[in-house]
Task: structure prediction
Amino acid sequence: MLDDKILNYFKKHEEGYVSGEELSRELGVSRAAVWKHIENLREEGYSIEAFPHLGYRILSIPDRLTEVELKWKLKADIVAKKIYSYKETASTNNIAYDLAIHGEKEGSVVIAESQTAGRGRMDRKWLSPKSKGAYFSVILRPDILPKEVSGITLVAALSVAKTIREITDLAAFIKWPNDVLVNKQKVCGILTEMNAETDKINFVIIGIGININTKKELLPKGATSIMEEAGAEISRIDMVRSIFKNLDKYYKIFNNGHIDKIIKEYKEFSNFLGTRVRVTYHDAKIEGYAVDVDNDGALILRMDSGLNERVLAGDVTMLR
Ligand code: BT5
Result:
């Protein structure tokens, strides 16, 4: 798209002005076309200054999660090589799944400003208020066995918790397996879905929902946003771009067979280890001390009997 080409040209010349003549020459279009596209960008929320004899300069960009902005200066080898961005969709996981079925490359991302049917695990809902959070899904094609897929959820949770700590002063923690918490409230949830055969994964979709500048009253009880806890708005573009960067880093470590390194860091970000927990899975309940996470991503519970139990899925409630 010409709008994107113009933006990328501006970005490469961010210090100075870019003349209409230069844009028309470099992009091979007429001056009138350049002017029309500058107007388009203004309508989309870009503030663009025009100075006689000097040309155009971008003063500010809109807070929108578009491919051009998210990819700008992003250092990642796999994640976000391609980004499909939507104003609204039912669920980014659904779109990513369809793309993956049709052969979409590993690393492609589907992101939306809002979702009308955002999903959590076990058919629960994920509230996705417009333009305040980030809701996205990443297509991955790891060469692992289906039973090893939980590791990908841990990779994603670690990437988000790490990003929150890098960008803010907030102490983000992970609650096994897929929640990221700040001050004991949920700021992010992860939904991992896969398409697999008995001994081979075709693809994995990791869906990440994160409340960034969302007001608490728009969220369910027990949830919060980065803004609410930090006391100030955060650039959604910076946050999502950093999650991509960390996801790329940890996914490569995982892919190289070093799940042990992922688990080690994951445990450093975990606040449930050493505490007494109840894990519920559908109608089943089990209680014990959370003592470890093993290399398959399973939670190890020390039961009152003194024996250890491995838990593969469920919801953790910390009891004390
Ligand atoms: C999750 O499920 O936490 C996974 C959420 C994944 C959402 C992303 S957004 C992009 C992609 N596209 C999708 O359709 N989904 C993914 P679970 O652990 O089952 O938690 C669901 C529960 O979290 C709900 O039952 C609510 O209690 C709570 N919840 C719902 N919306 C929330 C929000 N925005 N923030 C925090 N908690 C929320």
